[in-house]
Design goal:
about 75% helix; mainly alpha
């Protein structure tokens, strides 16, 4: 679940930053609710990336503990 939420946050951060810096307004859902500066959108992207990595690492750790890891 953390991975999905992280991916969505990454998309919102990227859309907001790209829209605000390179075009005339931020894109995504966040601009409808909040007026954020461009740096905040980078922070949202970074927080989303951290959530996605955390979720993926936790999932791999649980698979390794249960012995369900893949053989490479």
């Amino acid at each position: 679940m953390r991975g999905i939420i992280g991916f969505i946050a990454m998309l919102q951060g990227a859309l907001g930053f790209i829209g605000q810096v390179f075009f005339d307004g931020a894109w995504g859902l966040l601009p409808h609710w909040f007026a954020l500066p461009s740096v905040a959108y980078v922070g949202v992207f970074a927080a989303g990336a951290a959530l996605a990595v955390w979720g993926d690492t936790d999932k791999k750790r649980k698979q390794a503990r249960s012995g369900g890891g893949t053989v490479a």
